[in-house]
Fold each of these.
Amino acid sequence: MKTKIYLIAIAMLLSVTAFSNNAVANDNDGSKAAYTEAAAKLTEEQKVARIEEIKLRVAEIKAMDRSNMTKSERKELKQELKNLNKEAQAMGSGGVYLSVGAIIIIILVLILIL
């Protein structure tokens, strides 16, 4: 009889107890497409101002003493830097990048043509 009462009490206790969930709803999924959409809505002056803000924040983070931070704080800073990098790349013009091999091939083609 006692065991039935204990079982019922434990079942009631466990059914009433709420479990916490550590998952956080994130408005910004962190994808580059989301940053590109946001950058498309800004004017050139706003883009320049935002890029300056990003540069200042990165300089602040580099100047921080991270030795006193906990692991979770360092992880948050790393994630913030990644998001700032994605945002800055989305606002940038992209540019044209040439590898060393491509430059050598271009020079050889120019020499052969002349």
Note: The mean pLDDT is 80.
Amino acid sequence: MLRALMFILPLALLIYAFIDCLNTPEDETRHLPKVIWVIVILLFPVVGSVGWIATGKQRRPRPARGGWVAPDDNPEFLNSLREEKSPEERRRDEAKRDESLLEDWEADLRRREEELKRRERGEDTGA
């Protein structure tokens, strides 16, 4: 197992450093141009990989505040939960909305029925 680890660990380190180097923009590399870093990583797998990880890429400090915040730490999100209606209020509002839609539908249906009756009367008297 230890023998396999001696081959797998440097290989994994090489692959990680190589892909990280390729994905890094040119302006974020330090000390050497990006092409030279790729050559160093491929020619000297262990030393080049460790060198790239340690010094080759500019690391940005993580912001203490700002950026993404977990929902339970976000005061805006917590306030929005407090402003939400209770399930009973939501059901009442949905019932009112459903009633108004039903009334509108019935009114439209009555209007169409009256138009049909007028047309039938007009056709009957005109014929």
Note: Helices lie at 2-23, 34-43, 45-56, 75-83, 87-126.
Amino acid sequence: MGGREELEKFWSELSDSYLKNSLQKLIEEEGLAGCYTYWSHSLNEEAADFTMILDEGQGEFSIEMHKCPSKGMLLQMKHMNPHHAYCDHCPALYKPIVEKQGLTYEHEIDCDNASCSIRIKQPKK
């Protein structure tokens, strides 16, 4: 069917419709702290193994995902191999929302080990 292009279009539509009323709204209301509010709820709800740091003095928010629950579950399955780019959905969903709010979004993904890191920063004044 549509391949990667259609998948990215789907992710964009999800980002626009789902995150507009949650992450985007929280960043508008709370600034960088809105990232902490959003992910502390969602990652705890998913029972993820992670560390988050909000350093408002430095204008930085970070997540170290030690073990992503969804990718970790897929890696444990013996009857299938997850797609090599499974983890690409996270930056595709979150980066546009974060950057629309004037913040920078950086990530490193180790999809083979179900881990990643995200850094969101306010611009230097």
Note: The chain has a mean pLDDT of 90.
